[in-house]
Amino acid sequence: MTSDFLLSLAQAVSKGLLTGMVYGLMALGLSVIFGVMRVVNFAHGEMMVVGMYLAWMGFDALQITPMLGLPLVAVLFFGVGYALQRGLIQPFIARPEHQQFLLLLAVGTLLANACLAIAGPDSRTVQLDSQFDSYELGPLVLDAVRVHAAVVALAIAALLFLFFTRTRTGKSIRAAADNHMGALVVGLDVRRLYAVTFGIGAACVGAAGALMTTLIPVTPFLAGEYTLLAFVIVIVGGLGSMTGALLGGLLIGVSEAVAGLLLQPSLKSMFSFGLLIVVLLLRPQGLLGRKESR
Amino acid sequence: MTARAAIGLAALLALLIAAPALLGGYGLSVLILVLYFAYVGQAWNIMMGFAGQLSLGHALYAGLGGYIAAGLYFHYGIGPWLGIFAAVAVAVAAGSIVGYLGFRFSLAGVYFALLTIAFAEFTRIGFDNWEWTGGSGGLFLKVERGVVDLANLRGGPVMFYYVILALAVGALVLCRLLLESRLGRYWLAIREDAEAAQAVGVPVLWCKMLAIMISAALTAVAGVWNAFYYNNLFPETAFAMGRSIEMTLAPIIGGLGTLFGPFVGAVVLTGLGEIFTAAGDRLDIPGIKQIFYGVALLLIVMYRPAGVWPWLAARLGFAERKP
Predict the structure, then answer these.
(1) Which residue does chain B place closest to A268, by CA atoms?
(2) How far is the C-alpha of B224 from the C-alpha of B66, rounded, in Å?
(3) Would you say B39 and B265 are in contact if contact means Cβ atoms under 8 Å apart?
(4) Average pLDDT over residues A199-208
(5) Cβ neighbours of residue B11 under 8 Å, at least 6 residues apart?
(6) Which tens digit of pLDDT belongs to each residue from B197-227?
(7) Cross-chain residue pair B252–A98, CB shorter than 8 Å
(8) How far is A200 from chain B (nearest CA, A)?
(9) B269 touches chain A (CB under 8 A)
(10) Residue B321 domain flag
(11) Tens digits of per-residue pLDDT, A129-187?
């Protein structure tokens, strides 16, 4: 083990941690939706890609940087998510899983191909001056955009945590998640809470998309890959657990970066899926998930 | 089955047998697709429709089946009728591993579905890097024009049509027999309430294992057929999640757990797909075909959530006994 190797390993780990924060924010959206509604959002990666395209369009047409555009994307996603849940998903809450799957599959197909129809199949890049900047932390060199994206992702996650622990609406949502019948009995408007939850989940993934635009080019074909990635992260971290989703994001970010360093690039996601299989078998509730009481 | 349904079925079968003489090349290729999706849908339906276990990784079994048979033919000249035994054995082994791990640790619903996806993805990446099957560059079988060699499954569309027709009819008959059997009854009991089934003495684990093994075996046969029909295999498509999802659509849309659902669903989906391709070519907007497709799926799941066939059967007066 040379010190060169250790340095490049540390470099890969730090890069993985930073990207992992953004992954974590994306997965947080999926986890919140599942944790409260027991609905798996099979359109998650597609929603992420829509967020990426919106951020790119804001930059391309109006010169709004993705960071400034992020709040707009998040608010828009909240509204659309709220409406989507009210109009389309609510009737499916009590239906069998395969019907929910088909519904969200159809929504995802529409979203990804709407992007394709509007923006075309070419990959789109946002070019910022800050993409050439970097921070030096001892011997480590960290890309400035990656650091910014990670900090913003962490800040959003912290806000969300405060929302769920401090506000009345947040607490009500947790109550509805813990005990659906009980929430109805004490007079909570569970339908509205579900719509708010889906809106929040959508806002998370939209914001993650805006951040991701500063890191990688966007194409419509990323969608399926990100849906899978989000599944892997939340299962590893624990479906329905907020900190679990963040931890899962960091783990998968680091494992991808390290596998990319040590193995062929084509093998890097094998590690993630291997981790997923192990976690599903040994600890199906995920690293930080609670056992389901049914 | 009502007398009316029996006559309808006999007429349909006669029409399907005569189809190559009646249809042109394009019509036959569409019908081949319909029968392929009806067949794999039937295989998937055993797991989800009968036993209630959601698999979203069935591309694993089709991909393994196709690769094993095509690999044996490519490297050693072993014909597919022999290779199919190896293909089925490997797919059943894979199915047993997925099933045993999943069911043993009592993963259910979404968790089990994600396990099946993970195994398919894991295998896809493995095959991407396995040189014996050509890695990510793909495996190609030699195409010989004008040859009809049923022993090696080399030939034109008409031969492949009759093979897939036989498979689809065979799978339909098999599924009917299975449903009538004790095992079929056990499956339905597990689907409706696994705990209650366990309590009255149904061997739940064993029944679920049989469901995944039978389903994997039938799916592997489809994979072999597919590999020899298209003459090429790529890990990127053979094990893709999209491939797995494709297999679930015909039975869900046609009517989960029904015998004719996969066939009706395959007709609806393939028909819509062809119409949308033609419309999309005219409009020349990228992705427009998939947008039509998404809208169609959305409308079907919103207005016919139990599938098209139960509704259609009632309309036509073919009351299929509801399993």
Answers:
(1) B125
(2) 4
(3) no
(4) 95
(5) none
(6) 989 999 999 999 999 999 999 999 999 999 9
(7) yes
(8) 22
(9) no
(10) no
(11) 777 888 888 888 888 889 999 999 999 999 999 999 999 999 888 888 888 888 888 88
- For the cut 80, the answer to whether the pLDDT of residue B113 exceeds it is yes
Q: How many domains are contained in chain B?
A: 1
pLDDT for position B59: 95
**Domain for residue B20, yes or no?**
no
**Domain membership of residue B96 as a residue range:** 3-13+25-316
What distance in Å separates the CA atoms of residue B303 and residue B60, rounded to the nearest whole number? 32
CATH number of the domain encompassing residue B57? 1.10.3470
pLDDT band at A25 (very low <50, low <70, confident <90, very high): very high
User: Residue B35 domain-assigned?
Assistant: yes
Interface of A with B (CB under 8 A): 40, 88, 91, 95, 97-99, 101-103, 105-110, 112-117, 120-121, 220, 224, 228, 231-232, 235, 239, 264, 266-267, 269-270, 273-274, 276-277, 280-281, 284
> Hey, are the CB atoms on A231 and B128 less than 8 Å from each other?
no
Share of chain A above pLDDT 70, in %: 97
Higher pLDDT, B322 or A58: A58
Asked if residue B323 belongs to a domain, the reply is: no
- In this predicted structure, the answer to whether residue A263 has a pLDDT above a threshold of 90 is no
- Determine, for residues A273 and B122 on separate chains, whether the beta-carbon distance falls below 8 Å: yes
Helix (H, G, I), strand (E, B) or coil at A283: coil
Pick among B121, B123, B237 to test the A interface (most A CBs inside 10 A): B121
**In this complex, do B129 and A235 lie within 8 Å of one another by their Cβ atoms?**
no
